[in-house]
Design goal:
This protein has 443 residues and is mainly alpha-helical. The chain is built from 16 helices and ten strands. Strands 1-2 form a two-stranded antiparallel ribbon. It has a two-stranded antiparallel ribbon with strand order 3-6. A hairpin with a 2-residue loop joins strand 9 and strand 10. Helix 3 packs antiparallel against helix 4, helix 6 runs parallel beside helix 9 and helix 10 packs across helix 12. It is globular and about 85 Å long. The protein starts with a helix and ends with a strand. About 2% of the residues have low confidence.
Length: 443
Amino acid sequence: MNKASKIITLCAFGIGTALNAQTNDVTTPLHAMQPDYVTPYVIPEKNNIESVLNRVYTFLEENTASKVLNASDNSEVTDLKKAKGKIIFSPGAFRLTSYEWGVTYAGMLLATEATGNKQYADYTNKRLKLISDVAQNYKSENLKNSPVHTVLQPRALDDDGALCAAFIKAKKSGLKDNVDPVINNFIKYITEKEYRLKDGTLARNRPLPNTLWLDDLFMSVPALAQMGSYTGDSKYFDDAVKQVNQFSERMFNSQKGLYMHGWVESMQVHPQFHWARANGWAVMTMVELLEVLPKNHPGYPQVLAQLQKHIAGLVQYQDGTGFWHQLIDRNDSYLETSATAIYTYAIARAINRGYIDKMAYSPAVLLAWNAVASKVNAKGEVEGTCVGTGMGFDPAFYYYRPINVFAAHGYGPVLLAGSEIILLLKNNQFEMNDSALQLKTKL
């Protein structure tokens, strides 16, 4: 054998030895290899979820007002009836009377239901009592001197719908204080004062005349639904169902299973931008309505069917990370936390209430929670949330909305999502079946 032949033989021997040592279809069950997942692909554990909720609670307890001060010297107001001049809430990073905080109050109540820990409900009850006490006991010649002027004189659905629903939920959950005057003032605005189209659909005259905002489903319907449950008066249920149906007729894309963000009556063509958080408000609205809508109400089947179509549409656009995109059907827009958290809550609750197939949807919603949990940092801040957003009719508007840890829209949805996932885990078992996360069933 010449020198060249020896070299070739030795090289071949080396390659063969290397091949024998490699992972291949003969040496290793390749289907069982661990993928390099971006988001943890695991069955969530209750104690880990509670840890996330507790971090959020601690951050919010430390960063939201809990008392009233005299604006002149920052001394605490102990008797609201005797307060003179301008008063303010104690310093905090979030507004107690915003619609985002209406969602947070509801999230805290659900967290107590899911965990049994009273600290969450106490957070809500303490602040709702504070808002109600100021509204009912502090009188000022200048309404702007009141830190609850939007409660006393709402000017938009943003000012009252989510808060109204939270007040009623708190009352039904055991809040002892008389908050009915606040509730009644809120519901009067929704039913009698908010602008409507000729057919009764709740609308705004911004950014253009006769504009429907998908957001307004959540800013109105849950409050109407809760009021129907609270009073037993079916007129509130009737209006709530009408809003869902009439918004859906104009704004739901049945091919995609998604809603557009805005609809303007005078437009001959309606640009469709499927903004994630607005779709979140819509899907959460239907879940909230079905929670209290009597099953014998003639609108119940319609709302249930619409919810099922919307969830089916949403799930087909879920990203492999578990998140949804800022514009749901545009994969080059950024991944957004608040919408993902809202979908997690709404889909998990729909599973828990039997509205949708739990075998089909549970894996997606557990993945979504794992994604959301990854955005709650050690301080309890929620990262990756889009700031407050108006309405646009071009993609750049949505693509480049900023994100910020003080965007209040992220906190309530995280509390709701984690709480509902705990309830899902309590009533079901999951397993890794052939490497895939699935509902565990009996043969």
